[in-house]
Amino acid sequence: MGSYESFARVYDLFMDNIPYDEWCSYLIELLKEYGIEDGLVLELGCGTGNVTERLFNAGYDMIGVDNSMDMLEIAMEKKEENKKDILYLLQDMREFELYGTVRAVVSICDSMNYITEEEDLLEVFRLVNNYLDPGGIFLFDMNTKYKYAEILGDNTIAENREDASFIWDNYYDEEEQINEYDLALFIPEDCQGELLYRKYEETHYQRAYELETVKRLLEEAGMEFLAVYDAFTREEPKADSQRVYMIAREKGK
């Protein structure tokens, strides 16, 4: 699992290009299509709470789970500031525990790609199935193999901003289907009145999964696979889809 320690401090800054409102509108439309209009919803890999808060605003009772204390600290600050009644839990999604069941589980922003072992992904799916109400819905996105191999590939992405800069190197291993992200962050700090940049480095790993593998694991975990869409559409994924949304249902434990 990626460590987000220093990244947590600038995560929202560098994620400001993600159209969270549009992503969440799509997510909420899908939830409503499957009859989930309110009630308890769990978000896995909630990070700094950008999606969690929007779902809360849409009328859901939200629980957010993440394994990064740094990310959750920021989510908690936002929760206090915005007066949102959200329950945040510091847990690894491969062994999360809730007090009861929920109507839906959601996970977006490629959190599932961070699970790099098949048996761990199966374990996450089993837990999701376990904590879903009868007939509850699991909705999640994933980056595709095409995105890792063709778009990120061995590319470097860099941004130089006034308040921080980063260099993001990608290495994709075709055989293992693992994408390695090497992040170098340059964050300004006030050092006795002088502005100095401190460099932080961290490495994250994500895995590309074949759609068939994910379907099989969902079914092994006891769920019924319902649909897969090219992100933000109701269309089948194409050969060059970069992100897909998958929907599964609890079908009786």
From TrEMBL:
UniProt-listed InterPro entries: Methyltransf_25, SAM-dependent_MTases_sf
Entry annotated with the keyword S-adenosyl-L-methionine: no
Keywords: Methyltransferase, Transferase
Gene Ontology annotations of biological process type: methylation
GO molecular function: methyltransferase activity
Keyword Methyltransferase: yes
Pfam families cross-referenced by the UniProt entry: Methyltransf_25
Domain Methyltransferase positions: 41-136
Listed PANTHER family: TRANS-ACONITATE 2-METHYLTRANSFERASE-RELATED
Name under which the protein is recorded: Class I SAM-dependent methyltransferase
Organism expressing this protein natively: Blautia hansenii (Ruminococcus hansenii)
